[in-house]
Amino acid sequence: MHGTGRFLSIITNLMTIIGGLAIALMMLHITLDIASRYLLNSPLPGTISIVSYYYMIIAVFIPLAFAEQKNAHISVEVVTARLPMWMQRNLERLSFLLSTLVFSLLTVRTWEEAEKKRSFGASVTQGNDAIPIWITYYVLPLGCGLMALVVLYKLISSCLGTESGLDTSTAQADDLEDDGMEK
Question: Is residue 182 part of a domain?
């Protein structure tokens, strides 16, 4: 089980790097578009569509599983913190089960939608150019599927009582200081 968790962590971390690269490329693309518009009086064609249909979709859906892996999703534990530990664990397992079901259904449904969009070559027209967007529809099932796998793994690990191999560590201010960076 531990090895499976490590493998999921590696995949999730790589996907998150791709999400970060999408954000960096989006910033670069927008900067070049603005510079080109005001310095050369010629904006880059398709910037709005590429930012909306490529960069933003990748930046939002690919890192979903990373937040789950790090236990970084928003949670409010006002009531559950007062419950007995055995009940807290069972509620957590129930939430893992429901999350697995929801994200599995989302994966299947978004895959079907991606297949539909691919079949007729969905694109968006901006200016004189047609920009294919069907490709980005596959990002949703990829992100939701990875999220479903991470939550399913957490459910199985919790039910078996085994140590999770997921990397749940987060960057702390002390870690940044040790790397030579200031707070």
Answer: no
Distances (CA, A) of 108 to 101, 148, 169, 171: 11, 11, 30, 33
pTM (2 decimals)? 0.81
Beta strands in the chain (DSSP E): 123-126, 129-132
Sign of CA dihedral 68, 73, 76, 81: positive
Any domain includes 40: yes
In a domain, 53, yes or no: yes
What is the residue-wise DSSP string for 17-68? HHHHHHHHHHHHHHHHHHHHHHHSS-PPTTHHHHIIIIIHHHHHHTTHHHHH
Give the pLDDT score at 118: 92
Report the domain count for the chain.
Answer: 1
* Cβ(15)–Cβ(68) below 8 Å: no
> Is 172 domain-assigned?
no
Number of H helices, E strands in the chain: 7, 2
Residue 162: DSSP 8-state? P
The string of pLDDT tens digits covering residues 9-65 is 889 989 999 999 999 999 999 999 999 999 998 888 888 889 999 999 999 998 888
- Residue 86 identity (one-letter amino acid): W
